[in-house]
């Protein structure tokens, strides 16, 4: 469990600097330059992510059950992750209604993904992993919305054609991941 927690601290810690120490972050970027800052940020994030994967795999070998999820939980998780997969490309496709509505679709996507996995998994390592991501995502959404208010950021409306792109990309990615890649990469068949 130590490796998993260390990975989460590094990965989510790097991703939390803007939430909790934005002024410090701005000073570091000014001192180091944007490219070296992004390089250091990326290295720490990649190391943290690798440790999360390794640590979660290690923890799965001897799972500690906290609760037994009900049968319906995996079905609800499937629906929630579908929505999460639709929101993820909404962060990158300009001019869509999803971004105009939720403002920060990637972070909302992470929150939905984490919540869905908390519902469908009852092991201690799952609670630590997905709980940490859920708490981080909620904190990030709150901080981002605060920044938007302070900076007066308004997200423009979208077009139907951009919404269709977002939905198609999200649904196709979800189908490929849920029905093919999840079992191959994670070892769990979510749609069983």
Automatic annotation (TrEMBL):
Main subcellular localisation: membrane
Domain NnrU: 3-190
Keywords: Membrane, Transmembrane, Transmembrane helix
Keyword Electron transport: no
Compartments reported by the entry: Membrane
GO cellular component: membrane
Pfam (any one): NnrU
Membrane-crossing residue ranges in chain numbering: 40-59, 71-92, 112-139, 160-181
Keyword Nucleotide-binding included in the entry's annotation: no
Protein name, per record: Uncharacterized membrane protein
